[in-house]
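Q: Could you fold this chain for me?
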Amino acid sequence: MKIINYLFLSLFVGVSLFAEAQVIPPFKKGDRVVFVGNSITHGGRYHQYLWLYYMTRFPDMPVTIMNAGIGGEIAEQMYKRLEMDVYAKNPSVIAVTFGMNDTGYYEFLQSDSAKKSKERLERSYKALLQMDSSFKRQPGIKKILMAGSPYDETSKFGTNNLFPGKSNAMLKLADFKEAVAKKSGWTFLDLMRPMIAINVREQAKDSAYTLIGNDRIHPGVDGHLVMAYLFLKAQGLENKKVADFTINAATAKAEKQINCTITNIQSGKGILKFDYLAKALPYPLDTMPTGEWGAMQRRETDALKVIPFSKEMNEELLRVDGLKGNKYAVEIDGGKIGEWSAAELKAGINLAELRRTPQYEQAMAIKRLNEERWQIERRFRDYAWMEYDFLMDRGLLMKDDLATVDTIYAHLNEGFVRGNLDVYLKARYPEVRRGWQRQMDVLVEEIYRINKPQKRTFYIREL
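A: Sure. Below is the predicted structure, expressed as structure tokens.
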């Protein structure tokens, strides 16, 4: 109970201060953003979701967001690869998160757990200070230290991977990160306390609820969307509309046009027609269950039950005033998207929540292309694990020759060697890596070719 009480007391203070205390500058055109982390970054989606937001909300402001996560790592390992794996990507922004592996696991079940936890934390503190010194030698790069997603110690879905005290240790590490960031002038973002607060709130209704997977470590896709939401919120992007427009059918005038242009309004008895050109696209969300890296099978849309993402981040609002009839059919580009009463249309319809609009379909194509890019990028991170977490300490970093392959086969049952072997056997050839990179470049080029909003024709007809 002591741990849970600590979480309740500390977390809700953190959440109440979140909106005013956490500020990250929004990315700007041309930014190259690198996310450094462990498996939650390596195999996770939050950075993919962030880029998808920028792809759809700012179609004429290309940025690049890169994955530099490696599964299983602690801060010390991240520090060792900063030069070759992070700075080499020529970032303008670096966001670093660690702590899940740094704080340990089974140590919390041992009689000397307090001593072991203190030792692990001190090792992590030391590595962070080394990172901090390295960051200071890179003055042209903006730095973000993040307290990442939490270890879920409170869910009652089972007893597997339940390590009492681990959450407390991670919060101590988060506090140290915040202190280092403040002293050095880096930005600090706490995702941990807001996410635990959501867990605790929802567990009061369903004790088995969790944003994290059934390993208590890796967030589900809904958890990754929550992470992206919190990041975007800290960037001040709350309430930035996809579009917001009001048409008066009685006067045939556009009374509001936010982030869009309304033209060619034609209004007659029971009929309203107009052209609509937005400056952004809706954010597309998957309704299919997905589970990776120990996470439960969850849907991205499950996150909408616990965060106001649609209200704050994804509103494309259509309002029609001056309608005299009872019920109306709404078409876009000749395709019916739904039926609403005059009162409902006057109150407003959030088009971004409708999956059958042509603009949503356009955004979904972008999402699918971005997922293909993300899958290829994950192969690079599997290869990076073999290079930096297995071969580097053996003096074989980037050798990639047959003698290196022999060494790998001799240690096949160690760590993640077997799991990453197939990718390594392909990626050790520079020609393969260049091919993968070209594929990603083509996908991004296609995304920024098709992400420009198109003029749409609305037809609203009385039934």
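A (continued): Residues 1-20 have pLDDT under 50 and may be disordered.
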